[in-house]
Structure formats: structure tokens, C-alpha cells
Specification:
With about 210 residues, the chain is α+β, with helices and mostly antiparallel strands. The chain folds into 2 domains: about 90 residues, no CATH class; about 100 residues, Sandwich (Jelly Rolls). Helix content is about 40%, strand content about 35%. It is built from 4 helices and 6 strands; from the N terminus they run H-H-H-H-E-E-E-E-E-E. Strands 1, 2, 3, 4, 5 and 6 form a 6-stranded antiparallel beta sheet that branches. Strand 3 and strand 4 form a beta hairpin. The longest helix is centred in the N-terminal third of the chain and has 28 residues. The chain starts with a helix and ends in a 13-residue tail after the last strand.
Length: about 210
């Protein structure tokens, strides 16, 4: 025997709430990358499983025949996504490791050589600095640039002699940055340092490249 019409509606909305929260979490994880992706995928699974479990509960006759079952179901519908948000806020910080605040990328390129690497910047980073050093450069030039998660170039330049160095402090944005190096030379070696700081921690003075 099927229940009242509001039962199907409540059941559908509970499933939808779980899926909507899961999609939001996964999108956030892909945007930030790194450890956050694994964390948000786990929380998204909890959201979907919870939504379908509550949907099944709402359709059980022993539930919808209770006194004030409709009111209880409406409260559950509102409380479920709020509980998911609260759960993410409590569990997220407890499971999230401290943010990475330094990284080093080194390499060598020749004629038409190119390197592209991705740098995952934690959203908790409030300021950051890039530095490039080119200890070896023979017969030509070396170009480089750093693109933010939106694909906009925030720092770049061209080295034409060995011993070149440059420092920049672009606007901070959490997410996946791309560092690109292009060789217009017979041989070049480079080292790109990245250092970041949180609101309560200054930039490290030591070079991450040693």
C-alpha cells in the first residue's frame, strides 16, 4: 500500500539534497585539488548514502504513519543538508593536514624544450612568492610563466643570460596553478621556487630548492 502523496515528495527531495551536496563537494574538490579532492569525495559519498538512507526511511509505513509524521519529515528535510554542512566543517579541519608552504621545480630544457607542471595551492594560503633562477643558459633564451586556476598569466618573463633571477608576489588564489617553461636555447637549467604563508605564519626564509 502506497503512502500519502507527501511521502513520495519528501523521499525525492531527501535524495536530491544528498546528491546536490555531493556534487557541490566534488566540484570544490576538483577546483582545489590535492588532498582536498580525496576529502570532498569521501564527504560526497556520505551525503549520497545519507540522502538515500533517509529517503528509504521516509517511505516506510512505520515512519509515515506516526503522529505528526509529516512535520517530522519536513524537519528532517531541512535538518539533513544543514547537518551535512556542519559535519563537513567539523570533520574537514580535523582530517586536513597542514597546508604545504613551499615547493621547488627544477629542470633542464634544450631547443624547443618545454616543461609544464601543476602546483596545488591550498585555499588557506594568504600570500605567496615565486622565484626563478637560471644558473645555466647557452645560446638563446628561456621563457616562463605562471597561470592561475582561471588560466590567467600572473607572472612570467624571459631570461637571456646565465645567472638570471627574478622574484614576484602575485595575487594569491587557491587551486591548481600551472608553471610553464619554454626553451629557446641549446641548453638551459632552471629552478623555480614557490613559498606560501597562512594568515598566522610568515613566508619561510629558507629556499625550498636548497
Amino acid at each position: 500500500m502506497s503512502g500519502p502523496g507527501w511521502v513520495d515528495t519528501t523521499s525525492t527531495l531527501l535524495r536530491g539534497a544528498g546528491i546536490a551536496v555531493a556534487v557541490l563537494l566534488v566540484a570544490l574538490g576538483f577546483f582545489t585539488g590535492g588532498f582536498f579532492l580525496a576529502l570532498t569525495l569521501g564527504l560526497a559519498a556520505v551525503a549520497v548514502i545519507g540522502g538515500f538512507a533517509l529517503s528509504y526511511l521516509a517511505r516506510r509505513e512505520s515512519w509515515y504513519r506516526r503522529p505528526n509524521a509529516r512535520i517530522y519529515s519536513l524537519v528532517l528535510l531541512v535538518a539533513f543538508p544543514l547537518a551535512l554542512v556542519a559535519f563537513a566543517q567539523l570533520v574537514g579541519p580535523a582530517l586536513t593536514p597542514p597546508p604545504v608552504t613551499a615547493n621547488c621545480f627544477q629542470g633542464e630544457v634544450g631547443p624547443d624544450g618545454k616543461d609544464d607542471v601543476q602546483l596545488a595551492i591550498d585555499p588557506r594560503i594568504s600570500s605567496m612568492q615565486f622565484r626563478i633562477r637560471v644558473p645555466v643558459l647557452e645560446d638563446g633564451a628561456l621563457r616562463w610563466w605562471a597561470s592561475d586556476p582561471a588560466g590567467e598569466t600572473q607572472w612570467g618573463g624571459r631570461a637571456e643570460e646565465p645567472g638570471f633571477s627574478d622574484v614576484a608576489q602575485p595575487a594569491t588564489a587557491g587551486g591548481l596553478w600551472t608553471l610553464s617553461v619554454r626553451g629557446e636555447t641549446s641548453r638551459a637549467q632552471y629552478a623555480i621556487e614557490w613559498r606560501g604563508a597562512t594568515a598566522d605564519q610568515p613566508l619561510a626564509s629558507a629556499s625550498p630548492c636548497g
